[in-house]
Specification:
The chain is an alpha+beta fold. 27% of the residues lie in helices and 23% in strands. Helix 3 (20-29) packs across helix 5 (156-175). It starts with 7 loop residues before the first helix and ends in a 30-residue tail after the last helix.
Length: 215
């Protein structure tokens, strides 16, 4: 239980446990449409000890959409590497950067715009406050306001789709193959062990791209 995030049957691997926030922003930016095909890879380069369970420490995924658009996603959990928590959008009239680590949110090009997030990470990963409202405070303000006004926020469809996109990326990373989003949606794969007990073994298999075939 204390080591839950290192087992994909508990955490879903870090592409769904943590990096899904970036995929969620990507989904929002693209109008919440689903990709049709997903190609990726991943593996374990630094977290190779058995205490790290059976999750990966990096993923790299390409999402392809029906209209020909492609999005490129990567994530890693590796100590002493350059940190990043951002989504960058490139269009024919400008660029948009949403950087949740530095707090820099800016659009350049035809319709420039800038917002400074109140909560910024320093190199020491401490929070630095400014006078503007942070995204974390904003999401809580909207949640509490919806509860007090009895006007629920219907985000369920968004959340389900973001999870599906993350799962498709994990499947593509685990197998090293291109997968169709519909196949992932229809998959009956279950990672949770049968007959779970305090004696459950933790030496679960680690997926290997090009060898692992399950969806």
């Amino acid at each position: 239980m204390r080591n839950w995030l290192y087992y994909n049957w508990l955490s879903g691997d870090h592409i769904t446990e943590q990096a899904i926030h970036s995929l969620d922003m990507m989904q929002w930016a693209l109008g919440d449409k689903l990709p049709v095909k997903v190609t990726g890879t991943g593996g374990r380069q630094k977290r190779v000890d058995s205490k790290f369970g059976n999750v990966y420490d990096h993923f790299a995924v390409t999402y392809e959409y029906e209209d020909g658009l492609k999005s490129y996603f990567s994530c890693r959990q590796q100590n002493d590497t350059s940190p990043s928590y951002a989504v960058e959008l490139v269009g024919d009239q400008g660029r948009c950067l949403v950087d949740c680590r530095t707090g820099e949110h800016v659009i350049t090009g035809k319709n420039p715009w800038k917002h400074d997030d109140a909560m910024k990470f320093t190199d020491e990963n401490a929070y630095k406050k400014s006078e503007s409202r942070s995204m974390y405070q904003q999401e809580h303000d909207e949640l509490f306001a919806s509860i007090r006004s009895n006007k629920p926020k219907h985000d369920g469809d968004w959340m389900v789709k973001s999870n599906l996109v993350a799962l498709a990326g994990r499947t593509a990373g685990y197998t090293g193959q291109s997968v169709l989003i519909q196949d992932v949606l229809n998959s009956n794969e279950t990672l949770f062990p049968e007959n779970l007990s305090w004696d459950t073994k933790y030496d679960l298999p680690i997926a290997i791209p090009g060898i692992t075939t399950s969806i």
